[in-house]
Amino acid sequence: MTASDKREPAEAAPMTDEELHELAGKQAALGEVRGAPAADPVNVPMIRHWLTAMGDENPRYLEEGLAPPAMAQVWTMPGLRRGAKDRSPVDDMMAALDGSGYTGVVATNCEQTYHRYVRVGERLTPATRFAGLAGPKRTALGVGYFATWNITWYTDDDEPVAEMMFRVLKFRPPKAKAMEPYPLQPAVNQDTAFFWEGVNRGELRVQACADCGELRHPPGPLCPRCRSSERTYRVADGTGTLFSYVVHHHPPVPGRETPFVVGVVELPEGVRIVGNVVDCPVEEVRIGMPLRVTYRRMDDRLVLPMWTRP
Amino acid sequence: MTTTAIAGIGATEFSKQSGRSELRLAAEAVLAALDDAGLSPADVDGLVTYSQDANQEIAVARETGIGELTFFSRVEYGGGAACGTVAHAAMAVATGAARTVVCYRAFNERSGRRFGRPNAGLAGQPGSQGLEMSWHVPFGLMTPAAWVAMFARRYMHVHNATSEDFGRVAVAMRRHAATNPAAWFHGRPITLEEHQASRWIVEPLHLLDCCQESDGAVALVVTSTERARDLRRSPAVITAAAQGAGAGQMMMTSYYRDDMTGLPEMSVVGRRLWEISGLSPADIQTAILYDHFTPFVLTQLEELGFCGRGEAPGFLADGGIELDGRLPVNPHGGQLGEAYIHGMNGIAEAVRQIRGTAVNQLPDVTNVLVTAGTGVPTSGLILSSG
Question: Where is the signal peptide (chain B) (predicted)?
Answer without folding.
Answer: none
